[in-house]
Specification:
The complex is a heterotrimer of chains A (293), B (321) and C (232).
Chain A: H1 2-6, H2 10-27, H3 37-47, E1 54-60, H4 66-82, E2 86-91, H5 96-111, E3 121-126, H6 131-137, E4 171-176, H7 182-190, E5 199-203, H8 208-211, E6 221-224, H9 225-240, H10 257-292
Parallel strand pairs in A: 1-2, 1-4, 2-3, 4-5, 5-6
Chain B: H1 3-25, E1 33-40, E2 51-57, H2 59-68, E3 75-78, H3 79-96, H4 104-138, H5 140-144, H6 162-172, H7 184-214, H8 229-249, H9 257-300, H10 311-317
Antiparallel strand pairs in B: 1-2, 1-3
Helix pairs in contact in B: 2-10, 3-4, 3-9, 6-7, 8-9
Chain C: H1 4-22, H2 27-62, H3 67-85, H4 111-129, H5 131-142, H6 148-163, H7 167-172, H8 184-219
Helix pairs in contact in C: 1-2, 2-3, 6-8
The chains are: A alpha/beta (293), B mainly alpha (321), C mainly alpha (232).
Chain lengths: 293, 321, 232
C-alpha cells in the first residue's frame, strides 16, 4: 500500500484536481464572503470620489490571468459607472486593449448604455514600451497618445480637454498580471509623485505577496487574487444592488463571477492541504520503515 | 494497435459519445453562437458607406426577438462563431490532453499558439505604436490618408523621428546572418535607457521608500490613546523581520554567533514569506483552471448558465414566456 | 567602433534618463528618449516574430524531427499576421467610411478577432491553467516537513490556503474571544501584513541595491557582456 502511494501515478492527482474544480462549478456552489480590510480600502477609495471625477483604469493583463482578474475588472468598471466617474482606459500589455474592449462591451454598453464615449469614458488603448509608457504619461501624454484606440484625435475628445498627464486623475486603478503592472506603476508613477497620483490595484495571487511592502504608503488598497475580486464584488453588489444608476435592472450574473469561482477555489484549496498532509504521512511512514530495516 | 494508441482511441470514443449524448439530450443543442446585426451609417447617401456589423448576442436575446417577431432579422445564428466555440473547445481539450501524456494533439495546439501569439503581438505593436508614433510622426499626411484619418491636423512631420526609425531598422538587422554588430547600437540604446530608468527608480521606490516604510513607532497606542501591546508587537516583528532578513543577505560576515542567530531568524521569516507566496500562487492557478472549465461547461456544453444567457430559451420551450 | 559606440550610446541614453529625473528643465529630453525607446519596443515585436519565422523555416527546411509542427507554426503565424496587418474583413471606421483602412484591426467579427477569440484566447488561458495540476502534483510529492524551516513554510501555506476561502473562518470561528486573533482569516491577514511584508521588504531592498549596482556598471562600461564576446 505504502509503495503504491509512494509511486502513485501523478495522473491520479491531476484527476483529483480536475474533479475538485469541475464539480463545484457544475453544482454552482457559492459560499459567504467577508470583505477584508484591504478590499474595503479599495472600495472606499472609489466611494470617496465625486460624480465627474477622473479615474484612470490601466488593464495590464491578458486571457492567461483573466480567471483571476476578469471579475475584478468587471466590478471596477461597474463601480465607476455607478459613481458616474470619467473613465480613462489604457493598457501596457498588448492584449490588455482587448480586455478593455471586452469590459466596455460587457459592462458599459450592456448595462450603462446611456454613458457616452468621449464624454463619460474613453479608451487610450495599448502602447509598447512597458515602464517607458508610464514614464511618458506621468509628464506628457500627448507625446505618445496622438489618437485614442479607435483613431480619433485626442484633442477632439471632450474628456481629454485639460488632461496633459495622469496627474490630472483623481484616482488610478491598475489591474495587473505581472510585468509591467502594479509594481511598475508604484515605482515610476506613485513614488515619483506621491501627492498627485493615488493608486489602488487588483493583482494575481502570484504578485500579491510581493506588493505588500508598498502598503499602505505607496499603495493604499489591493485586491489580491480571486478572493479579492469576490470581496469587491460583494461590496459593490451590497451597495448598488441589481439596478444601474438609472434604476434599470442589470444582468447580475456577470457581477458574481469572482464569488462563483470561490466555490471551486475552496474545494481545491482543501484538496491541496490534504495532498500535502498525505504526502507527508507517506514520507514519515516510509522513513520509519527505512529505520526499522 | 499498441496500448498507447488504444488508450487514445478509447478516450476519443468516450469523449465523442458523451458530447453526442449531450447534443441529443439537450433540446436547444449546445455550443451555438448568436449575433446581433447592427447597421452602420444606415442613413448615409452613399451605399458604399453603409454596412452591417455583427455584435455578440445570446440565445436569450435571439429567442426573445423571435417570439416578438418570428420574421425578425436582427438576431441571427452565426455559423462562423459556432465553429469558433467548437474549435476553442477542441483546442482547450488538446492542451489538457498533455496531462495524460505528450501527444500530437498537444503539440499541434502548442505549435498553433506559438505562431498565433507572435503574430498577434506584432500586429498590435504595428497598429498601436509603429503607425501612430513612428510613421505618423515622420509622415502624418500619409497616415491621415491611410489608416488614421482622425489624426489631428496640427500634427506635422518631425524628422527627429528618423532616429528611432534608423535604430529600429538596425535592430531588425539582427535577423540577417551577417553584420550582427549593427544591431548593437539600438540594443545599447535600449539597455542604456533601461538602466538609467531602473537605477534611479529602484533606489527611490524599493530602497529609500522601503526604509521609510519600515520606520514605524514601536510604542503604539490604540484609538483611545492607551498602549496597545498587540499593535506594538506587530511593529516589533516588522522591524526585527526586515533587519534579520537583511543580516542573512549579508555575506561579508561569517554567519556565526549573534550574526548567525539573527540570520537564522531571518531564514524563518523568509520561510513564512515563501509559504505565503506558495499559498497565493496555488490560489491563482486554480482560478485559471476554473475559467477554462467554465468555458467548456457554459459556452460549449451548455451544462450551466450562470449569466442567464439561455434562460429565456428554457422558459419559451415550456411555453411560459 | 563596433564596441565603443554602443558603449557611448548606452551611457548617454542612461545618463539622460538620470539627469531628467533630477532637473525639471531636462525632463523633455528624457521624454524624447523614452518615446524612442517605446517605438523600439514595438519594433522588437517585429524582431520577435521575424526570429520565430527564421527558426521554424530553418527547422522545416532541414526537416529535423517534428518539422511538421514548425510548418503549423509558420502557417499560424503567417495567417494571423496577414489578416491582422491587412485588416482583412475589417470595415472602415463609422466616422470615416471613405477611408477603407480606418477601421480597427480588432473589429469584432473580423478574421483577426476570430483567431484571437477562438484560438489565441483558449490556448493561452488553458496553457496557464495547466499549472493548477502541476502545483497539486508538486504539493503531493515535494512538500516534505523535513525540518523546522520546512514546517514553517508548510504551516504558513496551510493557513493561507484555508484563510483565503470560507473554509478557514468556518473551521475556526468557534475560537473564544481571547484567541480570536488566531482565527484563520485574521491569522492570514497578520501573516501577510507582518511576516510576509518584512520578508519581502528585505528581499526588495536587496534587489534594489543589486539592480542599481548592475545598472551603474553597465552605464559606466564596466559590464559589457550585453555586447557579446566576438567581433561580429
Amino acid at each position: 500500500m505504502l509503495d503504491f502511494l509512494k509511486n502513485l501515478d501523478r495522473r491520479w492527482i491531476f484527476l483529483l484536481m480536475l474533479l475538485s474544480v469541475a464539480i463545484p462549478i457544475l453544482l454552482q456552489a457559492q459560499f459567504p464572503e467577508t470583505p477584508s480590510e484591504l478590499s474595503q480600502v479599495v472600495f472606499e477609495e472609489l466611494e470617496k470620489l465625486e460624480e465627474g471625477d477622473k479615474i484612470l483604469l490601466a488593464f495590464d493583463f491578458d486571457p492567461a490571468s483573466e480567471g483571476e482578474l476578469g471579475p475584478m475588472a468587471t466590478a471596477f468598471v461597474r463601480h465607476c459607472c455607478e459613481k458616474k466617474l470619467k473613465m480613462y482606459f489604457m493598457a501596457l500589455w498588448p492584449v490588455g486593449e482587448q480586455m478593455i474592449v471586452d469590459n466596455i462591451n460587457r459592462v458599459i454598453k450592456a448595462d450603462f448604455p446611456h454613458l457616452v464615449y468621449g464624454t463619460d469614458y474613453m479608451n487610450l488603448g495599448f502602447k509598447a514600451g512597458n515602464e517607458g509608457v508610464i514614464k511618458v504619461v506621468i509628464t506628457d501624454m500627448r507625446q505618445l497618445y496622438t489618437t485614442d484606440a479607435d483613431g480619433t484625435a485626442i484633442d477632439q475628445i471632450e474628456m481629454m480637454q485639460g488632461v496633459d498627464n495622469i496627474k490630472a486623475m483623481d484616482l488610478m486603478i491598475n489591474i495587473s498580471a505581472g510585468y509591467p503592472g502594479t509594481k511598475e506603476w508604484v515605482q515610476y508613477a506613485v513614488t515619483r509623485y506621491p501627492d498627485k497620483i493615488r493608486l489602488v490595484a487588483g493583482c494575481t495571487g502570484v504578485q500579491a505577496p510581493l506588493l505588500y511592502p508598498y502598503i499602505p504608503q505607496q499603495l493604499p488598497g489591493l485586491l489580491a487574487a480571486i478572493k479579492g475580486a469576490a470581496e469587491y464584488e460583494k461590496l459593490v453588489m451590497d451597495k448598488y444592488g441589481e439596478r444601474n444608476a438609472e434604476g434599470e435592472i442589470i444582468e447580475p450574473g456577470k457581477y458574481f463571477e469572482g464569488r462563483r469561482r470561490m466555490g471551486p477555489q475552496l474545494v481545491a484549496h482543501v484538496l491541496m492541504v490534504l495532498l500535502i498532509v498525505a504526502g507527508n504521512i507517506i514520507f514519515i511512514a516510509d522513513r520509519r520503515r527505512e529505520k526499522r530495516q | 494497435m499498441n496500448s498507447s494508441n488504444r488508450l487514445w482511441l478509447i478516450l476519443f470514443i468516450i469523449g465523442a459519445v458523451l458530447v453526442a449524448g449531450r447534443m441529443i439530450m439537450s433540446s436547444n443543442g449546445m455550443g451555438k453562437a448568436y449575433v446581433q446585426a447592427v447597421p452602420v451609417n444606415p442613413d448615409a447617401e452613399n451605399e458604399d458607406h453603409k454596412w452591417t456589423i455583427y455584435e455578440q448576442a445570446s440565445l436569450t436575446d435571439y429567442n426573445k426577438s423571435v417570439l416578438a417577431d418570428p420574421n425578425q432579422t436582427e438576431y441571427l445564428f452565426s455559423m462562423s462563431r459556432t465553429l469558433g466555440v467548437w474549435f476553442a473547445a477542441l483546442m482547450t481539450i488538446f492542451v489538457l490532453s498533455f496531462l495524460i501524456r505528450d501527444n500530437p494533439f498537444y503539440k499541434f495546439a502548442e505549435a498553433v499558439f506559438v505562431g498565433i501569439s507572435a503574430a498577434y503581438w506584432m500586429v498590435v505593436g504595428f497598429w498601436s505604436t509603429v503607425v501612430p508614433n513612428l510613421i505618423g510622426k515622420i509622415s502624418p499626411d500619409l497616415v491621415r490618408n491611410w489608416a488614421l484619418p482622425g489624426l489631428g491636423q496640427d500634427e506635422h512631420s518631425e524628422l527627429l523621428y528618423l532616429i528611432p526609425l534608423a535604430l529600429g531598422l538596425m535592430l531588425l538587422w539582427r535577423l540577417s546572418p551577417k553584420g550582427g554588430w549593427i544591431s548593437r547600437w539600438p540594443m545599447a540604446f535600449i539597455i542604456g535607457v533601461f538602466c538609467g530608468l531602473r537605477l534611479i527608480t529602484f533606489i527611490h521606490a524599493d530602497f529609500l521608500s522601503q526604509i521609510r516604510n519600515g520606520i514605524v513607532p514601536l510604542w503604539v497606542e490604540d484609538s483611545t490613546g492607551a498602549f496597545s501591546f498587540w499593535l506594538s508587537l506587530r511593529s516589533v516583528f516588522l522591524i526585527v523581520g526586515v533587519l534579520s532578513c537583511l543580516v542573512y543577505f549579508f555575506f561579508s560576515f561569517e554567519h556565526k554567533g549573534i550574526v548567525g542567530k539573527t540570520a537564522k531568524l531571518g531564514i524563518w521569516f523568509m520561510m513564512i514569506t515563501f509559504g505565503a507566496a506558495f499559498g497565493y500562487t496555488v490560489m491563482g492557478r486554480i482560478a485559471l483552471l476554473a475559467i477554462r472549465l467554465e468555458f467548456l461547461f457554459d459556452d460549449w456544453l451548455w451544462l450551466i448558465d450562470p449569466t442567464d444567457k439561455r434562460v429565456e430559451a428554457v422558459v419559451s420551450m415550456l411555453g411560459l414566456f | 567602433m563596433k564596441r565603443n559606440i554602443p558603449l557611448l550610446i548606452a551611457m548617454i541614453a542612461g545618463f539622460v534618463m538620470i539627469v531628467a529625473y533630477f532637473i525639471p528643465y531636462t525632463e523633455t529630453w528624457g521624454d524624447t528618449v523614452i518615446v524612442w525607446f517605446d517605438i523600439l519596443a514595438a519594433i522588437a515585436f517585429v524582431l520577435g516574430g521575424g526570429n520565430l519565422l527564421k527558426v521554424h523555416l530553418k527547422k522545416a527546411s532541414d526537416q529535423v524531427p517534428g518539422w511538421g509542427y514548425s510548418v503549423v507554426t509558420i502557417i499560424a503565424f503567417v495567417v494571423m499576421l496577414g489578416v491582422g496587418l491587412g485588416k482583412i474583413g475589417v470595415n472602415p471606421a463609422a466616422k470615416y467610411p471613405e477611408f477603407a483602412w480606418s477601421g480597427s484591426y480588432r473589429e469584432v467579427g473580423a478574421p483577426f478577432w476570430w483567431l484571437y477569440e477562438y484560438v489565441f484566447k483558449p490556448l493561452q488561458a488553458t496553457i496557464f491553467a495547466m499549472l493548477a495540476f502541476y502545483v497539486a502534483s508538486a504539493a503531493f510529492r515535494a512538500f516534505r516537513a523535513k525540518n523546522f524551516e520546512a514546517i514553517l513554510l508548510l504551516a504558513t501555506a496551510f493557513i493561507i490556503l484555508l484563510g483565503r476561502t470560507a473554509a478557514g473562518p468556518a473551521l475556526t470561528s468557534w475560537f473564544p474571544d481571547s484567541i480570536e486573533g488566531l482565527e484563520a482569516d485574521k491569522l492570514t491577514e497578520y501573516l501577510m501584513t507582518v511576516f510576509n511584508t518584512a520578508g519581502n521588504r528585505a528581499i526588495m531592498i536587496g534587489i534594489a541595491l543589486g539592480t542599481a549596482s548592475v545598472s551603474l556598471k553597465i552605464l559606466l562600461g564596466v559590464e559589457r557582456s550585453y555586447l557579446g564576446s566576438g567581433e561580429e
